[in-house]
Design brief:
- The longest helix has 14 residues, at 24-37.
- With 133 residues, the chain is α+β, with helices and mostly antiparallel strands.
- Strand 3 and strand 4 (95-96) form a beta hairpin.
- Among the domains are: 2-61, Winged helix-like DNA-binding domain superfamily/Winged helix DNA-binding domain (Arc Repressor Mutant, subunit A, Orthogonal Bundle), CATH 1.10.10; 83-113, no CATH class.
- The strands form two sheets. The protein has a two-stranded antiparallel ribbon with strand order 1-2.
- The chain starts with a helix and ends with a helix.
- The protein is built from six helices and four strands.
Amino acid sequence: MILREMFLGTRRFDSFLRLTGMSSHLLTQRLRKLEGLGAIRREAYCERPLRYEYRLTAMGRDLWPIIIAFKKWGDHWLGEGNPSVQLVHKGCGAITSPNLTCSDCGEPMEAHDASATPTKDFERERRELRNSS
């Protein structure tokens, strides 16, 4: 919810409190965790009293496709009527619905259009985890 709000332009603690419904304690913990991971950064906007706003870092902005995928899923499976948020492509001004495409050929991709193949290192890690129980 914090990331959703950040992509909608929310920056300040009090706004996060109102818009997410989280307790102050939980919100503080989650913001600290996101900051510790490097997904957001704090910037002072007032010296007296010292107050901060939160900004997405490059790492945080790279979460955009994930947030949009959740939005698309929610609109399809949980939505009732028109979506509450529309995505407008700044380049052409059109309301859009982003889709996954193959980075090589540009064709649209759904789950049945791809296969996942673990690397040798990841397969070895999985085998070790299976054998450790």
